[in-house]
Amino acid sequence: MIIPILIASALTFAPPQKVVSLDKIKGEPIQLAWSPDGAELYVESGQRTRVGTFENLKHYLVTLANQQVKAVDAPPQWATDYQTWKGNKWAPGNHAFVIDISEENRTTRAVSAPSGGALAKGGESGAAMGNMDDAVSASLTSQNQHVISLKLKGEVVGEYVDTQFVPGYTFGWAPQSAGNYIAYGGPDGHLGVMDDQGAKTVVPDTRNVLLPSWTDDGKKIAFIEKSGKKFDIYVTDLK
């Protein structure tokens, strides 16, 4: 079947179906790839360190027919090949359809609520000691954050705050044969699809989307839905 090239806003998707829960893998998923025949998915996981990087990488194959998750020693070659175009900076078929990556250091400030004071210490309301305590308690605290932002035609398709940049973690290009599309987890967590003209659509019933990944034939998108510390793989079909 040849998929007609449509603007993204004209694409329709079937309700996503959960195919497997990743409750037995170690760490959290950081890569997702389809096998060429669409029968398996490769998952790489890692344990997040205190500084936001990933270590102790593990590798798994998910067989969709029986929903089996099996640990393997290394990624298969097809998973490595898949990642070279899935998580690239530009679309496989249009290098002008390119993600703008920027870095900045942000300073966030929070004001702590006054606590204690003269009344709490048994004094009188408005006493000098109380006013001084309240002023000290309301002091500003600040935190510096390193932020990597990914934007495509003005749309945020990824943001990494004090964490390691992982290509394809928040987005995934469609294969060149399917057209110039990108799937991504939008700012509200839904799965979005955009084309190289900036037209886009949102896949209903999706939330907290990570690692969106197209099949080689462009007919399906797999993604991981995060709920707390739980990760599930879902698949939606292009109608």
Total domain units? 1
- Considering DSSP H and I runs of 4 or more, what fraction of the residues is helical? 10-25%
Mean pLDDT: 87
Number of E-type strands: 17
Structural class by sheet pairing and helices: mainly beta
Give the termini distance in whole angstroms.
Answer: 12 Å
Largest sheet: 4 strands, antiparallel
What is the count of DSSP helices, taking H or I runs of 4+ residues?
Answer: 3
What is the succession of H and E elements?
EEEEEHEEEHHEEEEEEEEE
How large, in whole angstroms, is the Cα Rg? 23 Å
Beta-strand proportion: over 45%
* Spans of at least 5 consecutive residues with low confidence: 112-130, 135-139
| Molecular shape | globular
Record the strand order, biggest sheet. Answer: 1-17-16-15
